[in-house]
Amino acid sequence: MLIGVPKEIKNHEYRVGLTPAAVKEFCANGHQVLVQTQAGAAIGFDDAQYAEAGAQIIETAEEIFAKAEMIVKVKEPQPNECKMLRKGQILYTYLHLAPDPMQTQLLIESGATCIAYETVTDARGALPLLAPMSEVAGRMSIQAGAHYLEKAHGGSGTLLGGVPGVAPGKVLVIGGGVVGTHAAKMALGLGADVTILDRSLNRLRELDDIFRGQVKTVFSTVDAIEHYSSKADLVVGAVLIPGAAAPKLLTREHIKNMKEGSVVVDVAIDQGGCFETSKATTHQEPVYVVDGVVHYCVANMPGGVARTSTIALNNATLPFGLALANKGAKQALLDDKHLLNGLNVHEGKITFKAVVDALGKELNLDYVDAVTALSA
Question: In the 8-state DSSP scheme, what is residue 290?
Fold first, then answer.
């Protein structure tokens, strides 16, 4: 199969779909790889490394989209990229369709087979291609929050770890999954006073064991969110419903009741955000203020540590990518129910129900079961 790796074009996005090591794996399996020039240069993967791994270096994204049978990316395709996709082509990347009607409509019109990293599952029901970026984003959320708590950056001037004689800052993490766990680890490491809210008692028990009682674990209710957010210096939104729009758990009223100069970091912003006042920002302009509360809602947080993120992502995506290339999309998807869960769009049909639930009325969409769509 002919694999194409275009350079990412979102604001301050330096990650790349395949590392030179991953290219070498595809070539060892008998495939050809086209890599756009400078695709990985910003994070230390230059054209010479890709060429040595067996890739052909291509000048333009247009040529890659025109030639490749499978496009491997990191971020969702931008409108001009969507328009270059075609029927019979595979797109393998993060999509986050539920809060994005424009991209959804363009992918439907393309006729391409679109597989979303964020909805591929594993035997435990987890999301193995989302997990590496969730780990990164969870850790970064505390770095970002601590930075913007500094007075010079708009915050209250609170040091999360405190010092002897001064109480530490209070961190509230809403959601105890991968993002929330890694956020709590970082916050605890800084010496902060950490509380995690979650609606799963089993997960709260697991977190209590993981942190040996050093982190407060609280069942998530409207009252709990209201109480703990009003006292927090930093709130991290770490809620995920796979493939669906994130629920708005922190309301405008909650924000109004927070302390002046406190910070909120919405890691769920790729899925529309879990704060009512959230709107997507970029690494170039990462924050804005609502009612005295600093909002950090960067939609590609892991792109800020692009080299670490790219290697971590490739470790997870490579086996599934090789299956798609070795078997072809249809056979690979039908052979692996977990990869099949990643299929969101196929030849104009939406095959992931949460996307239809979110956008069905707006775009007049009907849900088609993935196996049915592939067999049509």
Answer: E
Q: Which residues contact 117 (CB under 8 A, 6 or more apart)?
A: 92, 93, 94, 95, 129, 130, 313, 317, 342
Distance CA 96, CA 82 (A): 14
pLDDT in tens, 175-230: 999 999 999 999 999 999 999 999 999 999 999 999 999 999 999 999 999 999 99
Dihedral over Cα of 303, 305, 310, 315: its sign = negative
Most confident by average pLDDT, 10-14, 28-32, 241-245: 28-32
Strands (E), the chain: 2-5, 32-36, 56-58, 70-72, 90-93, 113-116, 170-174, 193-198, 216-219, 234-237, 263-266, 287-290, 293-296, 343-346, 349-350
pLDDT in tens, 323-363: 999 999 999 999 999 999 999 999 999 999 999 999 999 99
Distance CA 272, CA 254 (A): 18
Tokens of 22: 């991953």
Is 12 part of the annotated catalytic residue set? no
- Nearest-angstrom CA–CA distance, 136 and 216: 22
- Residue 113, Cβ neighbours under 10 Å: how many? 26
Pairing of strands 113-116, 56-58: unpaired
**Residue 355: how many CB atoms within 10 A of its CB?**
28
What are the tokens at 74? 């990191």
Cα separation, 158 vs 139, in Å, equals 19
Q: Which domains does the chain have, with CATH numbers?
A: 2-120+306-375 (3.40.50.720), 131-299 (3.40.50.720)
Paired residues of 341 in beta bridges: none
User: In the annotation, is 266 catalytic?
Assistant: no
Which residue among the candidates 100, 198, 270, 336 is catalytic per the annotation?
Answer: 270
Strand order in the sheet with 32-36: 56-58, 32-36, 2-5, 70-72, 90-93, 113-116, 343-346, 349-350
